[in-house]
Amino acid sequence: MSDFIHASQEDRVYLTRSIIGLLESWGIGLSDQIAILALPSEITARNMRRYQTDTPFPDHPDVLERIEHLIGIADALRTTFPRNPQMGPLWMHRRNKHFRRRTPVNLMVEDGLDGVIAVRTHLDCSFAWASSGSTAG
């Protein structure tokens, strides 16, 4: 995600808008978007609109790491449900036994980065394998 820091202002704004659009397509409200992205405490639901127009997300490592995982989650949902793009948003709001009967959205909001990583790990077996430290043998 260091590419984000070195990208042009226009590219950074485009990525920001894309992530906001992704979260909105999953039916995630503004206050939960703030929590999932770990945006600074001064950002409120009221002033999130700036990210929908011409302001890129902050260059903070926590925010950038979460963006990377959200992109991975979106890709994994597309792979998991290739014939029905509406299943991704439904899955994000469906209770899951692997998350102690919480929805993936609740897990990401309540558990922060660990929750975001847990959702990605559950959906993306190659990410789970790579992050486990496994090597081909």
What is the element layout, followed by pairings?
Layout: H1 2-6, H2 9-25, H3 30-37, H4 50-53, H5 61-80, H6 87-92, H7 104-123, H8 125-131
Helix pairs in contact: 3-7, 5-7, 7-8
Features:
mainly alpha, single chain, 8 helices, 137 residues, globular, 64% helix
Describe this structure in words.
It contains 8 helices and no strands. It has one domain (2-131). With 137 residues, it is an all-alpha fold.
Main sheet specs: none
Mass-distribution shape: globular
Task: Report strand %.
Answer: under 5%
Compute the number of helices: 8
Query: How many runs of DSSP E, i.e. beta strands?
Result: 0
Rg, Å, rounded: 15 Å
First-to-last CA distance: 29 Å
Helix proportion range? 55-70%
Specify the structural class: mainly alpha
Low-confidence stretches: none
In total, the number of domains comes to 1
Provide the succession of SSEs.
HHHHHHHH
Give average pLDDT, whole number: 91
In short:
The chain has 137 residues and is an all-alpha fold. The protein has helices at 2-6, 9-25, 30-37, 50-53, 61-80, 87-92, 104-123, 125-131.
